[in-house]
Amino acid sequence: MRQAVSMVAHLGFRLRALPSALSRSLSSAQDVLHRTPLYDFHLAHGGKMVAFAGWSLPVQYQDSHMDLHLHTRQHCSLFDVSHMLQTKIFGSDRVKLMESLVVGDIAELRPNQGTLSLFTNEAGGILDDLIVTNTSEGYLYVVSNAGCWDKDLALMQNKVRELQNKGSDVGLEVVDNALLALQGPTAAQVLQAGVAHDLRKLPFMTSAVMEVFGVAGCRVTRCGYTGEDGMEISVPAPGAVRLATAFLENPEVKLAGLAARDSLRLEAGLCLYGNDIDEHTTPVEGSLSWTLGTVTSGCPSPCLKKNVAMGYVPLEYSRPGTPLLVEVRRKQQMAVVSKMPFVPTNYYTLK
Asked: Taking the model in full, what pTM does it have?
């Protein structure tokens, strides 16, 4: 029996011509797709719309994928991630509900502190990854993946009903907000111009409700999916276009789409659900019958000028520097196991 490496030790390979994992999730079909509040805004700014997880989203804009990727690393970019499922869990038993579904200690979160966690099944397999924030307003704010929307919502709703039938005080509400991600080393500088809150006091994985460029009721969370400093802003849908327009008035900001988001997260060593982790992967280790070189995600790295990937190998082949052969488009290519992330992360933490 071969043992796969643990989830937090996904392996990096440098290899040639590896197709991006994003291509597995995209479709050209545009019928019966959900649209975010920024759909027309994307079209007006030259967004190339594609189907992704049941939504019509921009894959890129007039600038090239490479240019937008590097712009995010050097300045900042604005991503529309309104397809993500946002929910509120409220009631005095809200923590009891969430801890029955996820790994991690939700009860120990400080007010407005968040954590990355996982929905798991009875066998320990990962149903989805999500961020849970313990808000100071008396509810848990949960953001999970659009591709798992139906099963995540059903999972939480079923648990709510189960606990309510036992007399627990708990409820669930889907948040009908847009979600914008401002990512890059100048993101805080750009956002600071539009808020009264001192963003130096908002470290990585913390959250606060504030007015942003005149749009009230926005929840700003310092987090993201690029490895850079940045914020995700849950904004009431009617104010989404106004907020996005305000950001673009700053020359530091460019619009970026799914293509840049995928290559940025891969360089940062961040997993994509459905590719790098799924119901057959456990948080600690996988008893996986996969063979040497099973590659889950990969793309050319704009920053490193090399091809990079994540995957699973037997434990005895997991040491950095180990040479491997992987099959890419029916051809064997040399690969080298390397440490993750490929590009150092730049999250903002209080000193």
From this structure: 0.83
